[in-house]
Amino acid sequence: MRVLNLASLIGVAVLSAQTNPLWHEQKTKNYLPDMTWPEVQDLLTRTDMVILPVTSLEQHGPQLPIGTDYFTGIEEAKLIAQRTDVLLAPILLPGISPYHMEFPGTIALSHDTVQRVYFEAAQSLVSHGVRRFLLFSSHVGNQSVSRYIIDRINQETAAVAVDLNDVAAPFLPKSSSKETKLDRHAGVGETSAGLYLFPTLVDMSKAGPNTMQLPEHLRKMLSDVIARDPATTSVFLAESLKPKATGKHTSTREMTATGVWSERDTRESSVEQGRAQAEGFVSAAVQFIERWKVLRPMLPLAERQGKASNTWGK
Fold first, then answer.
1. Reported pTM
2. What residue ranges in 77-178 does DSSP mark as E strands?
3. What one-character DSSP code corresponds to residue 121?
4. Mean pLDDT of all residues in 21-37
5. What is the Cα–Cα distance from 205 to 61, expressed in whole angstroms?
6. Is residue 312 scored above 80 in pLDDT?
7. Residue 16: pLDDT band with limits 50, 70, 90
8. Up-side HSE of residue 77: CA atoms within 13 Å toward CB?
9. Is residue 156 within 8 Å of residue 309, measured between CB atoms?
């Protein structure tokens, strides 16, 4: 037995030496790029749901990768798909990020490009028997276009779509944190999430204090924004993080030299905080999905495929 085990180990070592040394991926359950078509067909006999992460490729300060929103969306959706049967289908990496374009590496797409690509992807999935879509915007700047995609799916296909952030919200644990400083893009919250979800890509040696420069009328709103006053927050975000060409003086580079839109020191980030954030959202999303399954039992796959939308590509 020991000889056989040694031979097996030698065989694995030889195989590893002969294949791509940079390949470290492991097959993930319910993750479309890893699956074969028979595996997808089998999954669709158990679920008619799919998560579509709507992500971005944009600067996230000196300590986080440009793919932060992509990795956050994909990794949280993977965790959801391990706890309940739902297909996870990544479609695009970049999203809507024009206000970050003064930082190298950011890729910004138009609203029309994003919505057309996601809608046509949804049409493909509808033809295979998907009838419920959960669009998951892991980049806040995608939220408006995500809602438009949702409406197109609901109005133009046989499927039903919802916003995963919206429907999970009622199931989220109550927050006890008392914020005293603004902490948004690439701040302590996002850095903590990165430390938990994709730790090898976070460089905490580059973390540190940050300063922000806001137009005076927006700075006067900060205390109410931090206190989460709905009216003030809506007005604040309507003007903040907008392309330089708008003249609002709120592009990321105009407000912060580092690209970190936070008044906090990102060295305060922690794996524990990131785990709590991610696990809270994942648990809430799973609770909603299980509830939706009860509210609307799915039809057999053959019946769903027989009633597929005939609007593909339109």
1. 0.91
2. 87-88, 132-137, 160-163
3. H
4. 96
5. 12
6. no
7. low
8. 29
9. yes
The reply to whether 70 falls in a domain is yes
Cα 105 from Cα 112, distance rounded (Å): 21
Task: Give the range of the structural domain holding residue 139, as residue numbers without chain letter.
Answer: 30-171+277-299
**What residues contact residue 73 under an 8 Å CB cut-off, 6+ apart?**
53, 54, 55, 136, 137, 138, 139
Calpha distance 199→187 (Å, rounded): 15
Distance CA 251, CA 162 (A): 30
3-class state of residue 130 by DSSP: coil
Residue 228 has φ and ψ, to the nearest 5°, of: 65, 35
Q: Is the pLDDT of residue 159 over 80?
A: yes
* Residues forming beta bridges with residue 128, ordered by sequence position: none
Average pLDDT rounded to a whole number, residues 230-245:
96
Q: Which helix (H) or strand (E) holds 232?
A: helix 230-239
Exposure on the CB side of residue 79, measured as CA atoms within 13 A: 18
When divided into structural domains, the chain yields a total of: 1
Residue 93 within a domain: yes
- Strand-by-strand arrangement of the 49-54 sheet: 87-88, 49-54, 132-137, 160-163
In tens, the pLDDT along 292-309 reads: 999 999 999 999 997 654
Residue (of 123, 129, 160) closest to 48 by Cα position: 129
| CB atoms near residue 180 (< 10 Å) | 11
**pLDDT at position 111, please?**
97
Tokens of 142: 């995608």
| 206 in any annotated domain | no
The band of 147, judged by pLDDT with boundaries at 50, 70 and 90, is very high
Q: How far apart are the first and last CA of the chain?
A: 62
CATH of the domain at 63: 3.40.50.10310
14 in a domain, yes or no?
A: no
The mean pLDDT value for 205-209 works out to 97
